[in-house]
Amino acid sequence: MTAVSSRQPADQQVRETALDASRSFVVQAPAGSGKTGLLIQRYLRLLATVEHPEEIIAITFTRKAAAEMRDRVLDALAMAASAEPEDGGREPAQNPYQETTLALARAVVARDVHKGWSLNAQPGRMRILTIDALCRTIATQMPWLSRLGGDALIVDDVSPLYRQAARDVVGLLHEDTPWSECVVTLVSHLDGDLGRFERMLVEMLSRRDQWLRYLLPGSSDPGSRRRELEAELAKAVGEELALLRAAVPRELADELAAVCAYAGDTLLDHASRSPAVACAGLAQLPGASAPERRHWQGVAATLLTREGNWRKTLTRREGFPADKQPRLQEMRARGLDLLARLAGAFQLRERLHAVGRLPEPVYTDGQWRVLHALLEILPVATACLRVVFAERGQVDYSEITNAARQALGGDESPTDLALALDYRIRHILVDEFQDTSHSHFALLQQLTAGWAPGDGRTVFLVGDPMQSIYRFREADVGLFLHVAQHGFAGLAVESLRLSANFRSRPDVVAWVNGVFPQVMPPADDAVAGAVSYTPSTAFVAVDEDDPGERGGPRGVQVHALFKGGSGDDSHGDGDSDSDSDGGTDGYRDAEARRVATIIAAARAEDPGASVALLVRTRAHLEAILPCLRETGIRHRGVDIEPLAEVPAVEDLLALTRALLHPADRVAWLAVLRAPWCGMTLADLHALVVDEPDAAIIDLLDGIEGRGGLSDDGRRRAARLLSVLGPAVGERGRRRLRRWVEGAWVALGGPACVASKELANVDAFLGLLDGLDLAGTPADGDELARRAAQLHAVADVEDADVEIMTMHKAKGLEFDVVIVPGLERGGRADDPHLLAWTRRAGESEDTNFLLAPIPSPAEEAPPIYEYLRDLEADKDLHEQTRLLYVAATRARKALHLLGSVAVDNDGESLRSPAKRSLLKRLWPVVAGAFEEALAARGDTPPQIGGAVARPTVAGLRRLPADWCPPGAPASAVANTDGSEPGDARAPAPVEFDWAGEMARHVGTVIHRALMEISRDGARAWNSARLGHRRNAWQAMLAGLGIPAQAMPAAIARVQEALERVLVDARGRWLLDPGHQAARSELALSGVDAGGLANVVIDRSFVDADGVCWIVDYKSSRHEGGDLQVFLDREQQRYRAQLERYGRLMSAADSRPIRLGLYYPALGGWREWPLPPASGAQ
């Protein structure tokens, strides 16, 4: 079997050094090197040295990572507290890592006891949180300085707010403002396409944290600003030329200048138009200033081919005509000798080839006019967005980050909050540091601005630049490289590298070590986003005597497939950078069959093996998924299928559209065709053929007199109308979810859905709930867009293979990894209104280069193309890193599948598409493909014939006379409001039945309690609650509270929440430090013989290991005895809470207690889950 060795890893000394609590480090931790484990050990070491746990902040980039780190720290502390070293009955640690972790944890336990921290009871004191949570905490402490204006709600989907701000900018066309002329200029530049202008503004607003801070400063005089930006361009060109000049071998510099000068002189004499003419009269190597650009371009034209390779010969076109003159013969010989000596100068060749794209650092007047308009309008668009944020009480993550930075102030004028944090924080740890954005990096610099070397405060930055794959989230790997070379914020930060690989077998590690030095750049380049390869050392030991190891999946295999030519895998032609398949079904099917074969073989060799199929995009699964279904291979997709494409959700979306828009004929036809009605196409045609403009609901109303319909169709239509007719009349009277869900249930929707699809139905209905709570106007198009952004729930038990994107696989590991579709090219980014790039050089200074989008009628100007090329180069480097991430997920075996085009002669291969992963691998695997091409007579293993294509399924529908089944006796509604099965109906309860308002106020209170639970009640006060009033108003308005009732409703919300904050019970319930603390926990399970889906307001495990299930009740009680009221309430809701307990007990064996909490009253009732109730 494969086991972790008990020996020390080769980098053990580095790991021990990283635990020195007095020094700061940046640690490069390659895939499988135990990065998280080292981070946890460092955290434990620091905990044992500080006065208060809050002095340490550990920052991650995802909630999942933060939760994992917190849980692992708590597990280590629990293990250390459970047994002392001398406890002979305890099983010893299995490896050196566990021994070190246990020793560190024991030191923390001792410190905890000595200082009275009570970390076990108050784990919330450990500040392990996401960067977004840190920003939110900072911003909400200084709402005025942060310009947040209150505790706004962070939303994931901000597109509607971006669109509103963009429309506000477009609206300036019709107003007399200082910016109206700029809008006219930009719209005219885009040929008057207002829609395109709006869409591009939306896209720019979504990326504003990248460009905004560079647009705001500078001179207000347009001429001065133009000179500043052109100077930045000239500086960038000069820096590239300096790097090029430095790449010329010193001993060849004079010879290179002489050869190129001779070629330039010759071409000048012949009146050539070659760029090499610029080298005429060259006496020495060109300099590194922007005007020298032309000379370097002449050097490139002399020595390189158009493809960027060193020339093999020198002809008259390069300035060496075929002449017998001794001088010419001598110079040609010197030139060829120079080329031979430069053959291995890879970096010089690359930089020399890139010099051709360097632009003249001067804007034309037309370009400047458009760029100046953008410099004026984009800050205005940002201001419009902030107005929209304030109106809606919602913000995006970028705004929270900017607000946090604003709250901390500048280097010269830090705020009181910044000074307080500077005093409290002594250590900062950052996980996945390679994914840091410039905004987050600046925030970290602000937090450490007052730190000085030797003052005992440290930073610990850990990550792997080789796994930096989130440029689309604004991550810049150059920041990691810069810190590793130059330190962080003036601190002495030492650079460490781990090398041990605890994940993969030696043969997999050896393949990765052999391949990636050839496909990754040879040297790090922070400006270009290039990361060189750092090798790893395999640490796992393989027991070759174990039959499972001898016969199981192992090693790395490259599977070559072909397209084009004759007798191959397909009948298609060559590929391009697009994902358009054209006539490529053949090789796609061959690839799908090969994937199925690999999975089947891996599962046969080792039934317990974990297998993963990793793709760049979901589109790459088009042929593979049908093949897996056809061959009976069970698969689970992780965030693969959009929720909007689930059939049951498609039907629900059509129903929602139909209810919202009775004149939407397409939606109504879809509702009639859905399984709950199931009208035939012939009946649908007969219904609408004579009335092309009439609303479908009107046609249904007169269906009895309409000819051409079958009797079955009439019955089906009549049943549907009996449900939807009244439902349409309830528009605006009920919450969106209840309205749609009620109609769906009455139509028989649940009877048409398999049980495994209920989670997807619930996700869609939850989306409707979200629109209600956010106060967003119901709109079918917006709803469809949001549903398309969510993913269907994967519900396949014991799957043979997990399917996910490469990005999603980061941080995971599998025994067998399959990567198909390597030849597929990625989609190029759409052009932006403004092209920009950031160049951070050796110094702290950053060049920010700008160019406006070209008009549709003009060719892209050189400056714009240059900036786009720089970004494209960064993308290509990231693609190589993405391939590294995919390859290093494998523990035992890695399978890479790619297809290349074969020329018509059937004997030669075309180069893979430039933007494909196969192109990145081509220097290494080209030989394997050529060998496979030569041996094409050997038919690869296949499963069955061609992959089955989707066929039209038969019509699924309920019977025409279907009616809902009768409710079981235990579910019959009780008019007195008692729970089903509760034999003791409670007496009339003294209760403030305020109708809809009470219910909606309760909804907002529930939502607010969930929000408070994230930070804990201690982080809230009356002032912070006051900042939330706008958000509550938006929610209440969305729920239908009229304006005249709004002040009273908001007052009731604030009154209840303020009581919670001063109530010891309330603070305890909302403490985020509880183990397994969850708010709004959704549970599904079988109870009383039926499927139950419930949502628990609050659950957690206390210090005694008791699992608590708490339900909030927003009831008010006027008059009478409060204790009697609470006793009655307990009886009223006992059955409901005990049902929650039964569902929880199926997944949690700990003792369970149930509780009812009344925020407005401070009331509380609790009781244990009865043993009989917990029995399964």
Tell me what you see in this structure.
The protein contains 41 helices and 25 strands. Helix content is 46%, strand content 12%. The relative contact order is 0.09. The chain is α/β, with parallel strands linked by helices and 1176 residues long. Helix 20 links the parallel strand 10 (500-501) and strand 11 (537-538). Among the domains are: 20-84 and 93-130 and 425-498, P-loop containing nucleotide triphosphate hydrolases (Rossmann fold, 3-Layer(aba) Sandwich); 250-344, no CATH class; 555-564 and 588-640 and 800-842 and 849-935, 3-Layer(aba) Sandwich (Rossmann fold), CATH 3.40.50.300; 643-789, PCRA, domain 4 (Orthogonal Bundle); 992-1070, no CATH class; 1073-1175, Alpha-Beta Complex (Lambda Exonuclease, Chain A), CATH 3.90.320. The chain has a six-stranded parallel β-sheet with strand order 4-3-7-8-2-9, sandwiched between helices. A six-stranded parallel β-sheet has the order 13-20-17-14-16-15, with helices on both faces. Strands 21-22-23-24-25 form a five-stranded mixed β-sheet. The radius of gyration is 34 Å and the shape is globular.
